[in-house]
Amino acid sequence: MSNYTREMESAERAARLAGGLLQESFGKELIVDVRSAHDIKLRIDKQCQQIICDALKADFPDYSFLGEEGGEGGEIEWIIDPLDGTVNYYYGLPLFCVSIALRVHGVLQLGCVYAPVTGELYTALRGQQAMLNEQPIHVSSRRQMAQAIVFVGHGAHDRSGEAGIRRFAHISSQVCKVRILGSAALSLCYIAAGKLDAYVEQSIHLWDFAAAQVILESAGGKLEYAPSECEPLSGAVIAYNGLLPIHEALEMSS
Fold this sequence. Notes:
The structure is a single chain. The chain is α+β, with helices and mostly antiparallel strands. The protein folds into two domains: about 5-135, Fructose-1,6-Bisphosphatase, Chain A, domain 1; about 145-250, D-Maltodextrin-Binding Protein, domain 2, CATH 3.40.190. About 35% of the residues lie in helices and about 30% in strands. The strands form three sheets. The chain has a seven-stranded mixed beta sheet, sandwiched between helices. Strands 11-10-12-14-13 form a five-stranded mixed beta sheet. Strands 1-2 form a two-stranded antiparallel ribbon. A hairpin with a 6-residue loop joins strand 13 and strand 14 (about 235-240). The longest helix has 21 residues, at about 5-25. The chain starts with a helix and ends with a helix. The model has no long low-confidence stretch (mean pLDDT about 90).
């Protein structure tokens, strides 16, 4: 059985290549392809995806691709988000990253998340130790909600917005701090590294969290995903350090 070390090396190279373009273009004028009320699509998203796909195809020509910028899945597929935190990036906020996962016969086998501004490279192979810049990381040991820093998303572009705001208000009184970073992958990696403690989002796409899920679980955390019935590539996520009573904290009276 493959241990996917070659795939990880390829993913790291691809992430750094795309991250190099993002770093070079950060803070400069950007081409907007699509702008909506609460989201934005940049030309550089597609450029980074092409860089990643070209690099990975050179090493593994038979693997397929699935991601925000298109692609079709297969039995062995790279799941890519070339720029997670697009709005942050566009507005000059340094919270963004490149996210690459490998899924084999439905099982996530590796995750690679690269934040070019900070130079942080989060990596993990399924069942092995999660790493940050080749140093082992682990989730926090916090067990009490009053000590926790929690990410609670409340989307504005879908029907999750109103419920998310109620959930945000409900949990904010129970925890030390609530944060919204604008990058799902980085939020999950921060939980893996013990910087944050939990992440709750009602509507998120698979490519937003696939790579970071491997990293989080390899660092001792847990992630629960409930796919949407009408859109199987998106759904609700609860991720945490595996110790907090997050489910009890989220319960709200009707």
